[in-house]
Amino acid sequence: MVSERKIKQLIELASQDDDVVSVLLFGSTARNEQSVNSDVDVCVVLKMGNYTKLFLSEKKLKYLSLSGNIDVQIYQQLPIYIRQRILKEGKILFCKNEDELYEIAFDTIQKYEDFKHIYDYYLNEIKNDR
What we know:
By secondary structure, the chain is α+β, with helices and mostly antiparallel strands. It contains 4 helices and 4 strands; from the N terminus they run αββαβαβα. Helices cover 52% and strands 18% of the residues. It has a 4-stranded mixed beta sheet, sandwiched between helices. Strand 2 (40-46), helix 2 and strand 3 form a beta-alpha-beta unit. The N and C termini lie far apart (43 Å).
């Protein structure tokens, strides 16, 4: 399968990238709900740090060059509610440092809990406007 070969190439690239902590599979493929037309959602998790938008975009372009039908995301570029969902449903494809991944996950969960009441209010308002 083309996706499996591309994922292996992506993991190989990530294993040589000093900024990468982990690669996670998420979305319909991780939930075993993919269809024939589904892409494969993969998230590259970088080490904790203050990255510029330019750096993150360049990093994403580096991994998108392998893409095919793989949708590559950089964890630090995603909204907090998406990061939380990836942690909840994602599957680890590659991990250099489990302790650091745990620290990143814990930080995300804390930030999500701080944000959750605002997000829930927003979703409720949208629901009530229909």
